[in-house]
Amino acid sequence: MKYRRLTKEQLEEMHQEFINFLATQSITAQEWKSIKENKPEVAEEEIDVFSDLVWEGVLAKIEFLENISATQMHLFHLTEKQMNLIAVRVSQPGIDLRTQHGFGWFKQNFMGENVEIMTAVKAYSEDKLLDKFELIEKGAIITKGELFRYFDDIIE
Q1: What percent of the chain stands above pLDDT 90?
Q2: Of all helices (H) and strands (E), which one includes residue 152?
Q3: Does 156 have pLDDT greater than 80?
Q4: Is the pLDDT of residue 77 over 80?
Q5: Above 90 in pLDDT, residue 110?
Q6: What is the DSSP letter of 7?
Q7: 67, 139 in Cβ contact below 8 A?
Q8: Sign of the dihedral through C-alpha 142, 127, 61, 88
């Protein structure tokens, strides 16, 4: 398995897609029931293959990721050739960027001495999708890129 197995909830949400996946392999509902009962390891492998296919489809479409902690924001723009990063670090005591109060303070003071903004560019490894997946596994969430674009405009 290249990525990670979808959660039970995710698999339930993708029930119809999983049925279609099994159908492409000429596995009927009755055959699937038999596989689960008599060859559970084969059933597990099928779920793993399906999970990888879903992840690959999702990862191929991701353009922006954000990872926000109490004192830092990592905003990623994932282009065809490279990962662009805008990193923000806040050193103001008592400010938590994950709260409404903390983010409000940040919006008022992002050009101040207690805020550091850095940029970086990194080429992908040989496996661009795995690079994206690893960012998600470290806590990044998929976004539409509003924060990245906002800071990108300010920096330029």
Answers
A1: 85
A2: helix 146-155
A3: no
A4: yes
A5: no
A6: P
A7: yes
A8: positive
Instruction: Report helix, strand or coil for 72.
Output: strand
Among all chains, which residue has been given the structure tokens 């050739």?
81
User: What is the Cα–Cα distance from 151 to 138, expressed in whole angstroms?
Assistant: 22
Contact 148, 76 (CB under 8 A): yes
How far is Cα 70 from Cα 103, in angstroms, rounded to an integer? Answer: 10
Segment (H or E) for 142: strand 141-143
CA angle 75, 2, 35 (to 5 degrees): 135
- Within 8 A by CB and 6+ apart from 154, the residues are none
Is 46 in contact with 34 (CB distance < 8 Å)? no
Q: What's the DSSP call for residue 99?
A: S
Which sign does the torsion angle of CA 99, 88, 152, 57 carry? negative
Q: What is the pTM of this model?
A: 0.84
The Cα-based distances of 144 to 57, 61, 76, 89, 147 in angstroms read: 17, 11, 11, 21, 9
Terminal CA-to-CA distance of the chain, rounded, Å?
A: 41
